[in-house]
Design brief:
This protein is mainly α. Helix content is 65%, strand content 5%. It has helices at residues 3-7, 16-25, 27-37, 50-63, 65-75, 86-103, 108-119, 123-137, and strands at 40-43, 79-82. Strands 1-2 form a two-stranded antiparallel sheet. The two termini are 24 Å apart. This is Mor transcription activator family protein.
Length: 147
């Protein structure tokens, strides 16, 4: 499932800046950026001077090198208010978790453990997300009834 498909049901909940970040960086890097800097103004480095290169390296560590370069190319030298978008991003993250769970060829328990580590959530929270999404959509997971 691509980022646009995941984002579409929540597009109306996101400010324009968040939508642009997703289109520039991809869903996962945009989520990481909003989770880390949400509600603050970020001076996006151009990466030309030593201080900017250091800041660029920090961003690359957080969101990945390609996303950090795309961010600098588009916003380099500007101030960027990073929106929080907490509720919408939480819904998008939950949809991504469910999609990743459905695509996994591992056991349900191993998939849940991997998702918990990847999203820095507890395995209990992953189970709650999977269960609530299944109940809300009225559709069972491709891996069958877990709960």
């Amino acid at each position: 499932m691509n980022d646009k498909c995941i984002l579409e049901p929540y597009r109306h909940l996101l400010p324009d800046t968040a939508q642009l970040l997703v289109s520039l960086l991809g869903l996962t890097p945009a989520l990481k950026l909003c989770e880390h800097f949400g509600g603050t103004t970020l001076i996006v480095p151009k990466g030309l001077l030593r201080a900017g290169q250091a800041r660029q390296a920090e961003l690359a560590e957080l969101i990945g090198e390609p996303a950090a370069l795309a961010l600098s190319k588009h916003y380099g030298g500007d101030k960027l208010y990073v929106p929080r978008c907490a509720a919408a991003l939480r819904h998008i993250r939950d949809q991504q978790i469910c999609a990743d769970f459905d695509r996994s060829s591992l056991s349900a328990n191993q998939t849940i453990a991997n998702l918990a580590l990847e999203h820095r959530l507890s395995d209990k929270r992953i189970r709650v997300i999977l269960k609530s999404t299944v109940i809300a959509s009225g559709v069972r997971s491709a891996q069958g009834e877990l709960f």
